[in-house]
Amino acid sequence: MTAATAHEPAPSNSVTSSRRLPSENITLKTTYMSLRIGASGQITSLVARNSGKEYAPAGHTSPLLNLQEGVSIISPASASFARCNGGCDITLRYPGGIVAHVSALETRDHIRFQLKSLSPRDGIDSVVWGPIHTTINGRIGDLIGVVRSDDWAIGMMGLTDNTIGGPPSDSDFYKMGYYIHSLDPVNHPAPLPYHEGQRFGVGGDGKNDVAFFSHPEEYFQFIVGNAAQIEPESGSSITYHSRDRRKPYTFLFSLLPDFPDSTPRHQITDPLDADFIGSAVAMYACPDNRGLSVIESIILSEGLPHITRDGIWIRDPRAQKPDIAWYGSHDRLIEYADALGLKAVQDESLGEYYPNPADPWAGKRVGFSGGLSKTIKEFTEDTAKHGILYGLHTLCTFIQPHSSDVRPIPNSQLQTVLRTHLESTISATDTDVRVIEPSFLSEPGTWHGGPDINVLRAGTELLTYNGISASAPYTFTGIKRGQYGTTAASHTAGDELAKLQMNCYHGFVPDMKLLADYADYYANLLNSGGMQYVDFDGLESTLYQNQGYYAVRSFFRRLFETYGRLSGGKYLRVMASATFPGGWEYESVGNVGGGRQNFDPVVNQWGREGKDIRNGYGNSYYPGTFGIQSYSSDWSVYDAENLEAKSIGWDCTYMLGLSERSVESSGEKAAIFKQYRMWEDARAANVITPPIKKLLQDMGMKYHLEARGTRGFTLYPVRENRFLLPASASAAQINIVNPYAAQPLQLMLRAQSDLASAYVALPDGSNLHLPGINKGQMVMIRSGRAYVADANHNRITDINLRQVPALRTGTSSLKVTFPEAATTPQFDLVVWVTGPGIKLGK
């Protein structure tokens, strides 16, 4: 991984070196795109060079560079151009005599724009690249600023840490929510009264991860950023901006504004050493199937973070692979990982890790049966021998209220909401505390409601209060002195009184300097423990500073630079509670949520969280997720294979939840492990082509894989005939469809109530006598064998077969008779039908 810089790409990457006199417009080109900027400083043409198709909508302005002063947008009035080697120098003139100098450089894959100077700049808060309007209205990649049709993509990338996606906004962070837009308007049109681009809140109660995902309809799109957005009248737009962070700003913001207990409130940011001069973006356009390779080319040529594992960039679909979420005793963790072909483990059995600088490893040991344990370092030495990355589930930078960062002296780098000053001197026992001006002290100390969230810092003392008077003298109510283990002290009139930002756990928040220290802390922690994997639950703790994506990117940059230095350049696998702009370059996977809320491999159905993340992340070339999919002891082998097939087909990742208890109680463990490893081998062999992936996406099908030779495979479609039946008192008849060739019957009949002796008239005319089976038990017919199994598919007794049952082509009937039934029996039935094989690989 290399650090981001603002350098010019190497001359060998240039596609033109002509030199011309100043002109009224300029045309800049890449391999795929021709872009024209007119005399008003607007982008007037975006043409695909291979087809000649115009993607700049008529009647919509696309300023190369806007300026923002307060809430006012200032667009360029005129532009002039001077050709230079490999590009041109652009002079933009704005009302009020403001002049910006921008360099433009043509490269093979992108056009690089950089702000060189702006004068006079007094009052200008931000520079805004765009919004660039396009006619594309397909996939809106709002995470990174790319818009995509079936065959074309147009995008923008920020080339400095302070050039971030979206227009300037309070906190420089997008507002969560939904908008109406169907990615497949033929099969999933948005019905009336909905209309294109209509916005909605996220819904739910906001108290858990899945609460934010409230719309399963395919025409509801979840917002995961604001670098691109739908424009119903034209298509779409792309925007980046850079803020002058050297001065303070007052923001009114809430991370979750749609929820009544998370109301917006004011925060005054502290100045940082980050300016907009030098801000740079890369504009690109290309065939959509070349989008990721073009972005990787930009990252490499611009020296942006390029994270690889085994030489493969983490955004490359070839790098996508399931991980393990481990629970319980660790005796067989390595054995299972080796057998399944999985190479990364998040250890959920150790619980959520809370940063503790005083004792980083407090209470953390890896447990085994019989009360044995190892240190994390000892265990990672074992996993490393098998090429397995091991890591912890953390709560990122959420500081607990009694952590060593707070006591005994409150850290001066705790994030503030505002700063004010004492009106008069107070002793260590005074509770009559007044300030010169009240600012926003009447507002809560965080977006989240609840008690004890108004905390003040005066020197080395922490105080709490309930409220403040509405008029002078501005006096606190409910003052408590010497809180959080600090000691009450005297303070002098004019001394600073800082109100601290609180987190949703009623703890504290690091400011930007302490955020960097926490990145160093984690880098040291991981390296000293031999870990190469970390799950940052609570990544939103990098947003409490109200510096938006700039803070996210700063945290990740520091983490990776420090870890790389300490570890000798080892790969670090990062997962997090969200993938924010600023984390896209660094995070390997985003396996949040799980279970049926994401995807159900048994009934083959997306959950609303899985659908939203699949679209939201996938639109920006980032893998969707099934979250944690816990190995279920009642899975059939086809259920496990379906999890892998759909993961590969949809380019989604997930964590396979494993414990020795769930695996060893599974009657189909051997078959599942064999088939799962086969899918992982096929994934690694890169034999599953885009057309095959499209087949695997079919939610009406499951798939079975067989090895063929050393690198070849055969893929078989599997159609499930699935029935849940309350039978009549005496019998139930079921019709089964087989669109393929005649084949041996594969059947699972599971009792939903106790079933007395029954007879099954099979589709080929043969009959099967079933003994009485209890609720939850099942009858299996597989591979010419029939038997009774428990709820976890473990064989109990064999059932004699006179012949191997067959299933003919077309529609067949199967009848179950219950001659001794006293009540209406209930059971579910699954009949698997296998289609012709498709050869994969060599």
Supply Rg: 31 Å
Largest sheet: 8 strands, antiparallel
Q: Would you tell me the structural class of the helices and strands?
A: alpha+beta
Low-confidence stretches: 1-22
Strand order of the largest sheet: 6-7-8-9-22-13-12-11
Helix content: 10-25%
Give the integer mean of the pLDDT values: 92
Give the DSSP E fraction (strand runs of 2 or more residues).
25-35%
The number of distinct β-strands equals: 56
Number of helical segments?
10
Separation, N- and C-terminal Cα atoms: 35 Å
Helix and strand arrangement:
Layout: E1 26-29, E2 33-37, E3 43-48, E4 66-69, E5 72-74, E6 78-84, E7 87-94, E8 98-106, E9 111-119, E10 126-134, E11 139-141, E12 146-148, E13 153-158, E14 164-165, E15 178-180, E16 199-200, E17 220-222, E18 228-231, E19 235-243, E20 250-253, E21 265-268, E22 280-286, H1 291-302, E23 308-309, E24 312-313, E25 323-326, H2 333-340, E26 344-347, E27 366-367, E28 373-374, H3 376-384, E29 389-394, E30 416-421, E31 434-435, E32 455-458, E33 461-464, E34 467-468, E35 474-477, E36 496-500, H4 512-528, E37 533-536, H5 548-567, E38 573-576, E39 599-600, E40 605-606, H6 608-618, E41 624-630, H7 637-649, E42 652-658, H8 660-664, H9 669-685, H10 690-696, E43 702-708, E44 712-726, E45 731-738, E46 743-744, E47 746-751, E48 758-761, E49 767-770, E50 778-782, E51 785-789, E52 795-799, E53 806-807, E54 810-817, E55 826-834, E56 838-840
Parallel strand pairs: 25-26, 25-42, 26-29, 29-37, 37-38, 41-42
Antiparallel strand pairs: 1-2, 2-3, 4-5, 4-10, 6-7, 7-8, 8-9, 9-22, 10-19, 11-12, 12-13, 13-22, 14-19, 15-16, 15-17, 18-19, 20-21, 23-24, 27-28, 30-36, 31-35, 32-33, 32-36, 34-35, 39-40, 43-44, 44-55, 44-56, 45-54, 46-53, 47-50, 47-55, 48-49, 48-54, 50-51, 51-52
Helix pairs in contact: 4-5, 7-9, 7-10
